[in-house]
Design a protein that fits this description.
about 350 residues; alpha+beta; two-stranded antiparallel ribbon; binds 3,4-dihydroxyphenylalanine; single chain; BirA Bifunctional Protein, domain 2; 2 domains
Length: about 350
């Protein structure tokens, strides 16, 4: 068989092959066999140099014709297969099936609790203030009535950056910063991160606090009690009772810790015959520290002697654990979506 006939029958064979092909894999196989670098067409054209001189242009031209024809056949078949695939997909498409709801993120329980608490205090006339997490010793300790060798500094395991720069151990320094920048009267809440060199089952090196401060004329312990009662009843329910226990903080005098009646057992100390797991049978749950601002703090910020005020500080994770029944503090910081997406 001469080369020209050979080339023509090659095109026919390919056409038959393509007619039978039913998948993209078949198509690719045919392309390799016929048009590939070592395929049938290439094999014939490779012999061109050995042909007699006068035959070469004729065979070469035929080769090009066949090649173009083959490419065309391939393109046609490819289009057919694509259309068939689309038609098959459409046949299964049911526009009446409800769509998949895209997954939505949710707010972290810390964020939820901070937003809730700040908005309760906003309704009571407090504004939100903020301050830096990298703080100077002076604001974190000294102006809060804790001079360098004050034993109360041991209450807080501090992470120091230099001798005088540290990661704030509480949100209380924002009291000082705000008073330095604002004349009384004022009422602020300060949500934020705080840091301590502490890490075990119930302590994490970073956690959140909310600080509160109200300063003016004739602000008394009664105002403190009224405000805190309104606050805990908004968070834990109107039936919640409040108890003040005498305590100590260097920056308040007198100082108190506040307990609320247990929201699980209602203050009875037991639920369903068992000792209540939230209050451990006492009927009360501690939720924050507070007191009347110590005159030494007012002196430090240059406030006149006739002002008075109260302050309080609470742990956000603690409130969130109580409110949502979360038992393990570490869950707050593991970023496990199975936990986070429940809020
Ligand atoms: N700063 C205290 C702490 O981190 C909490 C605190 C207690 C803040 C009493 C206050 C307060 O403003 O009056 O342990």
């Amino acid at each position: 068989m001469d080369h020209v006939t050979h080339l023509e029958s090659l095109a026919h064979e390919l056409e038959d092959g393509l007619n039978q092909a039913s998948s993209f894999e078949d198509l690719e196989q045919l392309r390799i066999t016929y048009l590939g670098r070592k395929g049938r067409l290439a094999q014939i054209l490779d012999t061109l140099p050995s042909l007699p001189k006068e035959e070469r242009p004729i065979v070469g031209q035929k080769g090009n014709e066949v090649k173009n024809r083959c490419n065309e056949l391939f393109a046609q078949k490819m289009q057919q297969l694509v259309q068939a695939k689309e038609a098959a997909e459409l046949a299964h498409f049911d526009a009446s099936i409800p769509g998949r709801t895209p997954w939505r993120g949710s707010l972290h329980p810390d964020t939820l609790v901070m937003e809730e608490i700040c908005s309760i205090f906003a309704k009571l006339g407090f504004r939100v203030a903020q301050g830096p997490e990298v703080e100077i010793d002076h604001y974190n300790f000294e102006s809060l009535n804790m001079p360098p060798d004050h034993p109360a500094r041991d209450m807080q395991d501090t992470l120091y950056i230099t001798d005088s720069i540290l990661l704030r151990t509480h949100t209380s320094p924002v009291q000082v910063r705000t008073m330095l920048a604002t004349k009384p009267p004022l009422a602020i809440v300060v949500p934020g991160k705080v840091y301590r060199r502490d890490s075990d089952l119930t302590h994490t090196p970073m956690f959140h606090q909310i600080e509160g401060l109200m300063v003016g004329h004739d602000i008394s312990m009664a105002h403190l009690r009224g405000i805190l009662t309104a606050f805990v009843q908004a968070v834990f329910g109107a039936q919640t009772r409040v108890r003040f226990r005498q305590s100590f903080f260097p920056f308040t005098e007198p100082s108190a810790e506040v307990d609320i009646s247990c929201f699980l057992c209602g203050g009875k100390g037991h639920a369903h015959g068992d000792v209540c797991r939230v209050c451990k049978g006492t009927g009360w749950v501690e939720i924050l520290g507070c007191g009347m601002v110590d005159p030494a703090v007012f002196a430090c910020v240059g406030y006149p002697e006739d002002v008075s005020g109260f302050a309080f500080g609470l742990g956000v994770e603690r409130i969130a654990m109580l409110k949502y029944g979360i038992r393990d503090l570490r869950m707050f910081f593991e970023n496990d979506l199975r936990f986070l997406s429940q809020f």
